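Re: weekly structure request thread

Next one in the queue (195 aa):
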Amino acid sequence: MRTLIVSEYVTLDGVMEAPGGEAGHPHTGWVIDYEESEQIEYKLQEVLSAEILLIGRVTYESFAEAWPGYTGEFADRMNGMPKVVVSSTLTDPAWNNTTVLPGDVVKAVTELKAQDGGPILVAGSKTLVHTLLDNDLVDELRLMIFPVTIGSGLRLFPETTKKAPWKMTATRTFPSGARVDTYHPWTVAADTDDR
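Done, posted below.
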């Protein structure tokens, strides 16, 4: 069974939109001021250890436009790794090694997770992430939190009345002040056994 990992850039006030310079947001590129070599290496190792990149259509379009123009180990991995795009409108993806996952997202992702193989990595993809979180399909949540607030934008977590407890299992702070917190779904019964 595959592990599904959601890995996101997020501001202190919970915004995940436009971290890298995407058009349309007044503070687009808010990650750029904090980028440094340790963070880049962390993200490289993350994609190298994943077997599949699972993304939504909007993120696919952004990535497919940008990554083929880059060179180096990171770009080679992003361009070469298997990619699965959740979309009801995309039919013929041009980005190398990409397939489309149409139809019932919850059912399709559940089936993808049930296969043998390595981790599934999800990046960006707000609508997809909200669906995965709402349906308890996330096995690990990695939040790279940047010490900046930008006030407006798409939020990482969906508006819901559902309670979802998480347990922090790791944290790492980079020289820039950005920090990665890793969480796993938490249950009282499982935590009681650890005490």
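The CA atoms of residues 96 and 105 lie 22 Å apart. The mean pLDDT is 94.
Next request, please.
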